[in-house]
Amino acid sequence: MSASPAEYSLPVRRPSFDLSEDLPRYWFRGEPFATHVFDALSSVFPPGEAYFVRSVQRFQDEIEDPALRKAIRAFAGQEGQHSHQHDRHVKLLLEQGYDSLAWRNDLVRRMSTWSIRRLPRFSLAGTAALEHLTALLARQLLSQPERWAEGMDPRMVPLWQWHALEEAEHKAVAYDVLQRVAPGYALRATSLAMNTVGLFVEIMDRVVYMLWKDGLLFRRRVWADGLRFLFGRGGLLRGHGRDYWRWYRRDFHPNEVDDGALITSCLKRIEAQLA
Predict the structure, then answer these.
(1) What Cα–Cα distance (Å) separates residue 274 from each residue in 18, 81, 90, 234, 262?
(2) Domain for residue 101, yes or no?
(3) Domain range for residue 107?
(4) How does pLDDT run across 193-230, given as a tens digit for each residue?
(5) Residue 19 belongs to a domain
(6) Is residue 154 within 8 Å of residue 19, measured between CB atoms?
(7) Proportion of the chain in helix, strand, coil states, percent, rounded to 5
(8) Looking at the domain assignment, is residue 51 inside a domain?
(9) pLDDT tens-digit profile of 166-185?
(10) Could you give the number of structural domains in the chain?
């Protein structure tokens, strides 16, 4: 199953966000752990999104479908904006004293460059798998704005809602490229398993580092709140099971979960936030 041209509707937006220096350190519900989970995701996006773009563009000359070639260009445009906007957030985090995020991102960039050069199909499969994971999180952020957006500092809401919207819009692009150049099931299945573990470890490493810098790493209450935020009822990682495991079916395609109605319902509100 592949996307039709009509399903590649990927406008490249160029928003401007108010990410000022007086943003509270704990801008999500005043909770250190929950805030740092979002901070960790935001901090890994600049090198991660660049990796996504390069791994997909590596194969654009092998794609004959003009609609998919156009979608690759739009995908690169959207992801480039994500990288740019989250890099602004990273600069705020560096100013708050989380200096180690800079060398962590440099390491990710170096590893990504090596992977795309030496293991291009593996890199593309990893991108498709990570796009699957970000689509799951995007669906949650968009479908439950009262739970997630209302907990954020108002200046962060447009950034995360816009990013989630575009992840939902372009969730099938990397997968469709993968299906054309490396359609084997084993590569696809292995890539999601490896990248699920890898992303979780990377995010938790950054969360632990930031809590350590805050002097909160060994606070029992902080960890209790954090585990509830991740795994408790309505937690960030709860409720994804069925959609996550769809990936491992041989006939899976990202568009079998139709986010069209969700995108339409959120579009005007989010674009109004960006205006």
Answers:
(1) 10, 13, 20, 28, 18
(2) yes
(3) 28-274
(4) 999 999 999 999 999 999 999 999 999 999 999 999 99
(5) no
(6) no
(7) 75, 0, 25
(8) yes
(9) 999 999 999 999 999 999 99
(10) 1
